[in-house]
Amino acid sequence: MEKLEKVEFIREKCAVSYGDAKAALDACGDNVLDAIIWLEKQGKTAQQATSYTTEANAQPEVSPEMKEAQAAYQASSKKSEFSQHVDSAWGGFKKLLNKGVETKFIATRHGEQIITMPVIIPIIGLFIWGFTIWLLIIGLFFDMRYHIKGAHPVTVDVNDAMDKVADAAETIKKDVTVND
Length: 180
Description:
Elements: H1 3-14, H2 18-27, H3 32-42, H4 64-77, H5 81-102, E1 104-109, E2 112-118, H6 120-128, H7 131-141, E3 144-149, H8 158-179
Antiparallel strand pairs: 1-2, 1-3
Helix pairs in contact: 1-2, 1-3, 2-3
């Protein structure tokens, strides 16, 4: 805390002037608690009626207006059913996006890794730029192989399916080049 903030804090807590708060802080080596105690010993603090209890379940008396205000606040801060559905959908989208970033799309050629990127990038490319699928297919005919590797297990073995597609493209390529 900066000295001015300490003086302001002491002034508010003890209901004293800035001069008294500063004097107390100076007298106590900038220790706020010691300054408050010093002011109490000097009799300069405003006396506040405070009651304490040792009962375990003691609750302070709450006025009816306060109860109404609390009820109104709770009612106004309650989310609507639509808002809850939007929050739920947003949470699902964030989970899916996180998995899309953690999972990697790997392109290899002749066993050498050419590119690694989050799987979300080629998926977005398919939706935004339709030519992406054709680039992937053409890549198969140039001995490219695609794999997906991620932190989460894949329920369907996508990598086997992509290997089968790459093998089929290689077979087609051989058939075309042999027949020429």
